[in-house]
Design brief:
There is one protein chain. By secondary structure, the protein is α/β, with parallel strands linked by helices. It folds into two domains: 232 residues, Rossmann fold; 152 residues, Molybdenum Cofactor Biosythetic Enzyme, Chain A (3-Layer(aba) Sandwich). Helices cover 36% and strands 21% of the residues. Strands 9-10-5-11-4-1-3-2-16-17-18-15-12-14-13 form a 15-stranded mixed β-sheet, sandwiched between helices. The longest helix has 17 residues. The radius of gyration is 20 Å and the shape is globular.
Length: 407
Amino acid sequence: MSPVLGCVADDYTGGTDVAAALRRSGLRTVLIFGAPGPATVLPDTDAVVVALKTRSIPAGEAVAASLAVRQWLHGQGVRRLYFKYCSTFDSTDEGNIGPVADALTQASGAPLTVVCPAAPEHGRTVYQGHLFVGDRLLSESPMRHHPLTPMTDPDLVRVLGRQTPHRVALVAHRTVRSGAEAVRAALDTLRAQDVRYAVTDALDDGDLDVIARATADLPVITGAAGLAGAAGALASAGREPGGPAVPALPQGPGVVLAGSCSAATLEQVALARRRMPSYRLRPEQDGLVEEALGWLEDRLAAEDRVMVYSSAPPEERSPGSAELLEQALAAVAARAAQLGARRIVVAGGETSGAVVNALGVTGAVVGAEADRGVPWLLTTGHPSLALLLKSGNFGRPDLLVTALEAS
């Protein structure tokens, strides 16, 4: 039986987040890192998530990679596609959300789709087309200072309108609260007006359920993990939960690797520094990787958990150093695995992508969540290795510490 839903995620932590939401909704879920190759074999599953690293690359490359995944999923019998991006709509005026959504909707023949980054459980809501982080507009949140995708405009209709030549309009909250039929009627009206993208207000999980029901017949929908979970619950209704039991986490040393500079990660790193030996990567230092690896080898021989991080507040960041630091953390991850680390916790989407690639991980079984939207991944290529890939903005303050203490 073919999967009922296929998902293309624009970064690795986003892939883990949406995979956790789909598994939680009752769908057996497989997570694949990177573009599947001709030899990729998909096991019996209800949903498949392909996590790419396309959020910040040139738009043309992001489009090509996403279309290739769509074609592969179509070959697996998947007829419904979910394009997953961050709940803070991380993008620039050039993309990549708009260009990828354009390509995926055009390839499916869909005249219209919805845009729903709301994730109420993480404090991301949309009202009158404006994205809120907690009680703050997106433009007043720490995302305003993101080093790669600074978000200075909270109006999603306006933001997406700068990324696509197609019309963008709003389905307001009063319509969503009127129910699925009202939303469906609103989408029909917008479709008749040649609107391609309908930004949907959503303040709570009930709103997401309404949107999921109203869009059940659309071949492509887009959003964060919140709408994906609602769509998954709709698809799993009446199904018997299946799949093998979640394997236990491997025992052994653990390593935290933090590259995100989000406010949430900075708080988590500050707490972890008080609880475990820590080493900060500084891009200006000579022998950056060699020094870090030397420190790791000495400490991991004596300690069962350590942290290497490059996370820093805005005033301490070095312009243009992001890729250098990502590769340094990736090298540390690879060496940690060689030294016997069995749990690797990574904070930051770009950092997670670099780490997964350095470890050669191509797929994973989605395990229990260490925090909402942050599941453990038991890697298929390394059966004794567990990864926790955390979006920069996710997780309670002590997550980096408690993850390594989990049984």
